[in-house]
Amino acid sequence: MFDRVLVERLAAETVTKGGIMIPEKSQAKVLQATVVAVGPGSTSKDGKVTPVCVKVGDKVLLPEYGGTKVILEDKDFYNWSDESFEEMDSTLAVQQYIQQNIRSDCSNIEKIMEPPEGQDEGVWKYEHLRQFCLELNGLAVKLQNECHPDTCTQMTATEQWIFLCAAHKTPKECPAIDYTRHTLDGAACLLNSNKYFPSRVSIKESSVAKLGSVCRRIYRIFSHAYFHHRQIFDKYENETFLCHRFTRFVMKYNLMSKDNLIVPILEEEVQSATAGESDA
Ligand SMILES: [Zn+2]
Ligand SMILES: [Zn+2]
Question: How far is the CA of 223 from the centre of ligand 2 (A)?
Answer without folding.
Answer: 17
